[in-house]
Amino acid sequence: MLNIEDLHVEVDGKEILHGLDLRVPPGEVHAMMGPNGSGKSTLAYTLAGREGYAVTRGRVLFQGQDLTAMKPEERAQEGVFLAFQYPVEIPGVSNANFLKSAVNAVRRHRGQPELDAIEFLKLARQRLKLLNMDEASLSRPVNVGFSGGEKKRNEIFQMWMLDPRLAILDETDSGLDIDALKIVAEGVNALRGPGRATLLITHYQRLLDYVVPDKVHVLAAGRIIKSGDKELALELEAKGYADLVKAAAT
Amino acid sequence: MTATQQTIESLRSLQGDYKYGFITDIESDFAPKGLNEDTVRFISAKKEEPQWLLDWRLKAFSIWQQTQEREPTWARVTYPKIDYQEIYYYAAPKRSKQPGSLDEVDPELLRTYEKLGIPLGERAALAGIAVDAVFDSISVATTFQGRLKELGIIFCPISEAVREHPELVRRYLGSVVPYSDNFFATLNSAVFSDGSFVYVPPGVHCPMELSTYFRINAKNSGQFERTLIIADKGSYVSYLEGCTAPMRDENQLHAAVVELVALEDAEIRYATVQNWYPGDKNGKGGIYNFVTKRGACRGARSRISWTQVETGSAITWKYPSVILQGDESVGKFHSVAVTNNWQQADTGTKMIHIGRNTRSTIISKGISAGHGQNTYRGLVRIQARAEGARNYSQCDSLLIGSQCGGHTVPYIEVKNRTARVEHEATTSKISDDQLFYCRQRGMSTEEAVTTIVNGFCREVLQNLPMEFAVEAQKLLGVSLEGSVG
Ligand SMILES: Nc1ncnc2c1ncn2[C@@H]1O[C@H](COP(=O)(O)OP(=O)(O)OP(=O)(O)O)[C@@H](O)[C@H]1O
Ligand SMILES: [Mg+2]
Question: Closest chain B residue to A140 measured between Cα atoms?
C-alpha cells in the first residue's frame, strides 16, 4: 500500500529525515512513536505533500504510484488523509460547506456523482451520531472556537466523510478525554480493512489498547531505529526512549 | 432551469477569463463625440424632455465646465487624465426605440442578455425578478410592468418616468444628490441618458426583487445612468443591480448617480454586484467606475441598506451613503471589494446622523491580490441634534500575495456626547496553513482560495438575496483566479 525507501527530507535547507524506510501493507495499522522533534510530523506532512518539505533522496510509492510527483489535492483525491496535529481554523466557512466541497472534490475524482445538500446532510448526520458529536457543529465555522478535543474529533469526522485509503493520524489522541479516545479508536477501527492502511502517530500506549497495531515503529532523529509488534509500545511506555536512542547511535 | 441557475451554469463554464467580454454587433445611434452644450441639448431632445429638465441639465453642465480642471484627487487611485472630448455621451442601439413590449425588442439584444444570464420575460417570471435592462444609453426592456402596476408600483426607465410621472421626478430628482454635488455627479446630471425609476406607494410591500442590468457595449462610449428610487410611507422594496461590459483596450467611463428616498417607516434594500470589465492582466483597458450613490432616510424609522460586491472595473470610486434625517432611522453598508492584477478601488460609505437615535452599521471587506490596491474610506458624522446615535464599523482587509495593498481611512466626527461610535479594523493574509488544509481535503488551490475568501466575506454575502449570493460567491472565485500558486 505505502512503500517508503531511503527517504530524505529537507525543511528550510535543513535535513530532518535521514533515510527512512517503511512499508505499510494493505489492511494494516502501523503505529509511529518517537521523541519530540524526531520527525514524525515531518513525515506526515511530506506524505501529504506540504510545500517546503523537499524530498532530496529516496522514494514514496502509494498503491504503486509515485506520491511525490502529485499535488496535495491529488493525493487527497487518491485517498491520502492527514488528521492534523494542529487542525487549522477557517473563519466564516461552515464545517458543512467546507466538507461538502471536499467530499465532492474527492467524489468527482473517483467518478462518483456529487452529493447535493440534502444527501450530504443525511450522510453527515449519520456519521456525527456515530461519533457522538453535536449536529450543531456542522454550521459552526471550521475549527473556530472548537476545544482541543473537539478539533481532534472533527478531524475524525472529516476522515469518515472522506473515506480514505491511507489515513495518517498525527497525535489525534493527544488532548482527548477517555470517552473521546474510545470514539476515535472506534473510528480508526471502522476504517480497518482490506485495501486500506493507517499510520498512527502517537506518544501514548493508551490509544493502542483500543486500536491494536500490526506494527510499532520508533522514529528518532529522522530514522526508524526499531520496529516491532504491539509489545514494543508497552516496553517503550515502561522504559522510555533513552536506551534505544543510545543503542542506535552506537 | 431558472435564470439564476443559468447564470451560475454559465459562470461555471468560465476559465478565468472575463466572460462577458463579447461585443454585440448592433447598429448604434451616437451623439457627436465630445461634450458641449449642444451634446446636452441633443440628449435632452432625443428623450423628448420638458424644458425644466433641459434647464436643470444645462445648469449642471455650466457648473461642470467651471470645475473641469477639478476632478477629485483625494482618492487613492491613479489614472491618466481623462479626455472628456474623446467620449461619446450618447449611444443607443438603433432599431429599438423604447419598445412597448418584449416582442418589440431587437432579438440581437435579447440574445445579448441571454448570454449574460439576465432574466427577461418568461425566465424572469420563474426567478421572480422584474428587470430593467440598460444597454449603453437606453433602457431596452422593463419586464413585469403590468403586474407591478396593479399594486401601484412604478418601475420604468427614468426617461419614461419623466414623461409619465413628471411631478414625482421633478420633486425627487437631485434631492439627494444635487447637480452641484461633485465633479462626476455634476457630469452625470448634465448628460445622463437613462436608468431606472421606482416608486412604491404608501404601505405597499413590493413582492418581487426589482433589478436593473447595465451593459456598456459601444466603443468609446461612456455610460451615465441615473437611478431614482422612492419608497413612500411604510413601503418596502428590494432592488438589485448588475453590470458588465465588453473587453476593450481603451478605458471606458461609467459615472452613474443613484438616489434613494425612504419616507416614514419605509425600507429600501439596494444590492449591487458590479462586474464591469476590470482590464487585462497587465492593467490595460477596463472601466472607470466613478459613481455617486446616496440614500436619504427622510422619515422617522425609515431604513436604507446598501450591499455591494465589487469585483470588476479597473478603478472603482464609490461611496454609497445614507443621510439619517428621520428619528430612529437606520442605515447599513455591507461591502466586498476585490482588486486583482492592477485594479484599484477606493470605496466606502458616509453615514450622516442627523435625527435622534439613528443607527448605522458598516461592514467592509477588502480583498487584494496581484498588484491590486484596495482602500476603505468612510465617514461617520454625528451631528449635534443626533441624540443617542450609534454607529458600528468593521473594516477587514485580506491580502493575497505581497505586492498588493489594503488601506483603511476612517473619518469620525462626533458632535453629540450621547453618541456611541465603534470602529474595528483588521488586516490578514490567506495563510499557507489554511490553503494546505483545504488542499489536503481534496480541493484545488482555486477552490481553496474561493472557500477561504467566501468565509471572509460571509457577513456581507448573507445580506444578498439568496440567488444573488450564490452568483456573487462564484464571481469572487472567478475574479481571484490565478492569484495564488
Ligand atoms: N521550518 C523548519 N525549519 C527548521 N527546522 C524545522 C522546521 N520545521 C520543523 N523543523 C524541525 O524538524 C524536526 C522535526 O520536527 P517534527 O515536527 O517533525 O517533530 P515531531 O516528531 O512531530 O515532534 P512532536 O512529537 O513534538 O510533534 C524538529 O527538530 C523541528 O524543530
Ligand atoms: Mg509532531
Answer: B455
